[in-house]
Write a structure and sequence with these properties.
about 375 residues; alpha/beta; 4-stranded mixed β-sheet; 14 helices
Length: about 375
């Protein structure tokens, strides 16, 4: 382990369109004491060649080509080769500002340094204030702050010694929330946490990359995922001797394919998971939950289908929602803006069409359908 060195681990899979932007942003950091570990996870495009070319140009870059086994395995391979005193992760389709590493390393005395990020091409800023948390202090305020710390493995600086001492690795059996599992495991052994105002991590929102479409887990897979995460939170509560806000935990249930409710003509399977892990004994709580509600998730899926040009599928989901839930949506408010997040991803004409369709649907829902 080399003192002061930051090991940057970047898993790579079919990223030829974005990889150079990512690597160039790392090479041009104001803080230059780093090694860049590129793990090519069996890419079938030109990513392998791009990685090799960068390795030839810069001796700080190490490239490893492996068979495709998923992002968790790739990150674990990166950890096994890392020589740095500190570890950070960057995704291959993202990029960072020139002072990104410098803003983190100046707080290296803390066990974990956490910064914010900007999404693009639609701009959403996620930021932190300057805080220091001591996990041994029961009044540290961390119980409600954990949901802002546990969502992703990037945007953080870790101590390699803590990762090694406690054998912390990514769970290769999880297809979703594996980075949450990693973060919660690491936080279990962190005594001091520093949040910083830096938002120099740029997180790319790819078209057609909604959770609804990217992850389609079976009930059994979801049950296993939720069980792992619940155990993570319970272990964290035990180590920190405080109750932890589990709100991010509920996001995992969004991997249950909403179409299953309609194909099975029942939401019992879905509700059973909700009831098992979120301790609500009435369906009203389920239907009004802003993250888990099948009604809210259907509206979101309809919105995404229309904005992605899948109008036929969107209209079918509208019909399913109306026929299956009947009067139920009258008492439920949709908690998210219908167009704002995606407005920059589509043309003005498409935006107007989508806006008109949703306005008509809202009138239909209000006065006729439900």
């Amino acid at each position: 382990m080399k003192e002061g060195l930051i090991s940057i681990i970047v898993p790579v899979y079919n990223a030829e369109a974005y990889l150079s932007t990512c690597v160039d942003s790392i090479i041009h950091q104001t803080h230059q004491e780093f090694e860049l570990i590129l793990i090519n996870d069996g890419s079938t495009d030109n990513s392998k060649t791009i990685c090799d070319n960068y390795q030839k140009k810069d001796n700080r870059i190490k490239v490893f080509h492996i068979d495709n086994q998923g992002v968790s395995h790739a990150r674990n391979v990166g950890l096994s080769y890392a020589q740095g005193e500190f570890i950070t992760f960057i995704d291959c389709d993202d990029y960072v500002d020139p002072d990104y590493l410098e803003s983190y390393i100046q707080h290296k005395e803390y066990d974990c340094v956490v910064g914010g990020h900007l999404t693009f091409p639609s701009i959403r800023k996620v930021f932190h204030n300057d805080f220091v948390f001591n996990t041994s202090d029961s009044n540290n305020g961390l119980n409600n702050y954990v949901p802002r710390l546990d969502g992703s493995c990037w945007g953080k600086l870790y101590h390699h010694s803590i990762i090694q001492e406690h054998h912390i690795r990514f769970n290769e059996g999880m297809r979703f929330s594996e980075d949450t599992d990693f973060c919660l495991h690491y936080l279990r052994y962190a005594h001091t946490i520093k949040t910083i105002t830096n938002t120099g991590y740029h997180y790319r929102i790819l078209p057609n990359n909604h959770v609804e479409k990217k992850y389609r887990l079976t009930k059994e897979e979801l049950d296993k995922n939720l069980s792992i995460l619940l155990n993570d939170y319970q272990e964290l509560e035990k180590n920190w001797n405080t109750e932890i806000n589990h709100s991010n935990f509920r996001i995992s249930i969004a991997c249950y394919p909403i179409e299953n409710v309609y194909s099975l003509q029942s939401d019992k399977e879905y509700y059973d998971l909700y009831y098992k892990y979120f301790y609500h004994n009435d369906k009203e709580s389920f239907y009004k939950d802003p993250i888990c509600s099948p009604y809210v998730r259907t509206i979101t899926a309809i919105k995404n289908d229309f904005l992605d040009g899948n109008r036929k599928k969107g209209r079918q989901l509208m019909r399913n929602l109306q026929s299956f839930y009947g009067q139920q949506p009258l008492s439920i408010d949709y908690p998210y803006p219908l167009y704002k997040t995606y407005a920059t991803l589509i043309s003005k004409r498409q935006f107007i069409v989508a806006e008109c369709l949703f306005f008509i649907f809202s009138l239909y829902k209000k006065y006729f359908a439900f």
